TrEMBL record:
<dbReference type="GO" id="GO:0005886">
    <property type="term" value="C:plasma membrane"/>
</dbReference>
<feature type="transmembrane region" description="Helical">
    <location>
        <begin position="262"/>
        <end position="283"/>
    </location>
</feature>
<feature type="transmembrane region" description="Helical">
    <location>
        <begin position="128"/>
        <end position="153"/>
    </location>
</feature>
<feature type="region of interest" description="Disordered">
    <location>
        <begin position="1"/>
        <end position="20"/>
    </location>
</feature>
<feature type="domain" description="ABC transmembrane type-1">
    <location>
        <begin position="91"/>
        <end position="283"/>
    </location>
</feature>
<dbReference type="InterPro" id="IPR000515">
    <property type="entry name" value="MetI-like"/>
</dbReference>
<dbReference type="InterPro" id="IPR035906">
    <property type="entry name" value="MetI-like_sf"/>
</dbReference>
<feature type="transmembrane region" description="Helical">
    <location>
        <begin position="31"/>
        <end position="53"/>
    </location>
</feature>
<dbReference type="GO" id="GO:0055085">
    <property type="term" value="P:transmembrane transport"/>
</dbReference>
<keyword id="KW-0813">Transport</keyword>
<feature type="transmembrane region" description="Helical">
    <location>
        <begin position="95"/>
        <end position="116"/>
    </location>
</feature>
<protein>
    <submittedName>
        <fullName>Putative ABC transporter permease protein</fullName>
    </submittedName>
</protein>
<keyword id="KW-1133">Transmembrane helix</keyword>
<feature type="transmembrane region" description="Helical">
    <location>
        <begin position="203"/>
        <end position="228"/>
    </location>
</feature>
<dbReference type="Pfam" id="PF00528">
    <property type="entry name" value="BPD_transp_1"/>
</dbReference>
<keyword id="KW-0812">Transmembrane</keyword>
<comment type="similarity">
    <text>Belongs to the binding-protein-dependent transport system permease family.</text>
</comment>
Length: 298
């Protein structure tokens, strides 16, 4: 009696579930993942949307209206006009300090990585360890001694302290990464070039640097964002409003009587974010195209 009732039940449970049931179960299993992705999108995107909407609000809407209310007009660009009159100078100062420092970091860092990994000379391991030690030194510890040195050299009041400090702080990580990248290139490539009569400089300029093009673009992208978003070093060495970089300028973005004007401040931040986003998209596509070309060539 027991056998005749249990066998049909087992056959029913072992039968494959309908397709709709399988899709529903798969969707239920993916729900926690969807919820996590939605939560991350809200955390990342909501501040940007709130910032963009706030750039169109007037000072009265900020002070007397709700923080979640929409702006009364999306065609009011007075905040952007007022913000651009000050941000243009800050952006110019950032470009004048970041671009030369980034060029020095890339050229000197790539050359140092080539010398440490490709060339054979006594003490190169110790030199590489010294660069590694430079990565571990907190930037806050060197600001006061550097300020004293710049003051004695009469460099304060100019943009040279920022260029020199950015170059010095960006070199250790760049040298370490470039030495690691050069380690992946077979030594036989440079040995063949030497046997063909190429000098060390010719091997670096014509062979080593072009082969590191993808790595150089990647490191340049990383270092650019480090330098562009720097606040501590720029705040320490810029004493005049005409020399402020964009991050320091946004920190001190106030009106005529020292009152924070939220609309122009939000508009200035939007200009900076859009500029960084455009540069990131442009450089990121260049890096991805370079990596894809290198992969095809093998």
């Amino acid at each position: 009696m027991t056998l005749t009732t249990s066998r049909p039940a087992r056959a029913a449970t072992s039968a494959p579930a309908p397709r709709n049931t399988r899709d529903w179960r798969r969707t239920v299993r993916r729900l926690p993942g969807y919820a996590c992705v939605a939560l991350l999108l809200i955390i990342v995107v909501y501040p940007l949307i709130w910032l963009f909407l706030g750039s169109f609000k007037t000072q009265d809407e900020f002070l007397n209206g709700s923080t979640t209310a929409l702006p009364e007009s999306f065609t009011n660009f007075d905040n952007y006009t007022q913000a651009w009159s000050s941000v243009a100078t800050y952006l110019q100062n950032s470009l004048l300090t970041v671009v030369p420092a980034l060029a020095l970091i890339i050229v000197l860092g790539t050359a140092a990585g080539f010398a440490l990994e490709v060339l054979v000379w006594k003490g190169r391991q110790t030199t590489l360890l010294l660069f590694l030690a430079g990565i571990m030194i907190p930037g806050q510890m060197i600001l006061l001694p550097l300020f004293t040195v710049y003051f004695n050299l009469h460099l304060t009041g100019t943009l040279w302290p920022l260029i020199i400090t950015y170059t010095a702080t960006g070199l250790p990580l760049t040298v370490f990464m470039m030495a690691t990248y050069f380690r992946a290139i077979p030594k036989s490539v440079f040995e063949a070039a030497t046997m063909d009569g190429a000098s060390i400089i010719r091997s670096f300029v014509s062979i080593g640097f072009p082969m590191m093009r993808n790595s150089v673009l990647t490191i340049a992208l990383v270092q650019f964002f480090f330098l562009w978003n720097d606040l501590l070093i720029a705040l320490t060495f810029t004493t005049d409003d005409a020399q402020r970089t964009v991050q320091v300028g946004l920190l001190n973005f106030t009106g005529q009587f020292g009152v924070v004007e939220y609309g122009p401040t939000f508009a200035a931040i939007c200009i900076n974010v859009l500029l960084i986003l455009a540069i990131y998209i442009f450089l990121n596509q260049r890096v991805m195209r370079g990596l894809a070309a290198g992969a095809v060539k093998g």
